[in-house]
Design a protein that fits this description.
Blueprint: E1 36-45, E2 50-57, E3 60-68, H1 76-82, E4 84-91, E5 94-100, E6 108-113, H2 118-124, E7 129-134, H3 136-150, H4 155-161, E8 172-174, E9 181-185, E10 198-203, H5 219-237, E11 244-249, E12 258-263, E13 276-278, H6 279-288, H7 292-295, E14 298-303, H8 307-314
Antiparallel strand pairs: 1-2, 2-3, 3-6, 4-5, 7-14, 8-9, 9-10, 10-12, 11-12, 11-13
The structure holds 7N-methyl-8-hydroguanosine-5'-diphosphate.
Length: about 325
Amino acid sequence: MAESENGSPTKRLKTDAENDCGDVGVLSSGSPVSDFEITRILRDGAREKIIFIQGKVKDQDAVVILEKTPFRQDTLSELLKNSQLKLEMKNDVYSTYQLQAPAHLNEIKTTLVCPATEKHIKKYLQQEVFLVEESGEDYRNLTLPYINSQSFSLQWVHNVLEKKAEADRIVFEDPDPDIGFILSPDFKWDKKQLQDLYLLAIVHRRDVKSLRDLTSEHLPLLKNIRSKGEDAIRQQYGVPPSKLRVYLHYQPSYYHLHVHFTSLEYDAPGCGVERAHLLSDVIQNLQADSSFYYNRSLAFPLRADDGLLARFKEAGKLKT
Ligand code: M7G
């Protein structure tokens, strides 16, 4: 749900597709989530306190993601003072309670994807994963034709770049068409606390799909993102570069170059070694060899029912 800086719901955006999935930022009983009919649970992450639910909103396929967010230090005393406590048990110096927090301190971050495609549903479904090793040639023969035919729509990215959506959330922009970018909060971050800080730098140029396309020609772009992104985050949130994990995903879900800026303290989804490539490593690799990412083998995980995995299997490229 889009929210303005002051937390109030934003107005409806003119570019929102007309559909039955509801209005941006509307929090009422007639909200798209209250109309949501549950079909099945795609994934239930008890430890991360996140659940992915598939369902329908007025006959349209949809996914709802509910996530309990980290505690906010600035509201702790209010939480302790103004909540109701129900004793569960007491034994010696130990006692446990059910704490009922006031509604405004008990929000659940909610993401709605509607209408959701089959690909969205697969993305969120818990599945067995396999590690694939892709050579530069495999990329050109197998992966590129696949992503050209099967990728997620980039409409949301273009909306951000053209300020048709999320314009009020922009943290920093360098408008230069070659080395410029927009830095905005990732939609996984509710901006309520810094422990799970998560921003995205989305480049203005539209001719770079992913890490694979990068050569030394892109070094000015990458260095610009690193230095101006870090400066903006220090200025806006008081978080220094030594507290940030700055990386690119390979494979990404969205094939328009973007860089993830996350809090080092946050175990962000997809920040493991099999998917995340630190921006500083990428810069150094390209400084040493302009065709580093054109040639080298890159490993990444694919879910069991990913069509790309089938192509690697058919080509005899999956190590079993
Ligand atoms: P990715 O590396 O392409 O793939 O990252 P991933 O989603 O598998 O990590 C894309 C990033 O864009 C993710 O961190 C998403 O949470 C974020 N994201 C996706 N969408 C659809 C939006 C959106 O509409 N707005 C914003 N601000 N972030 C989004």
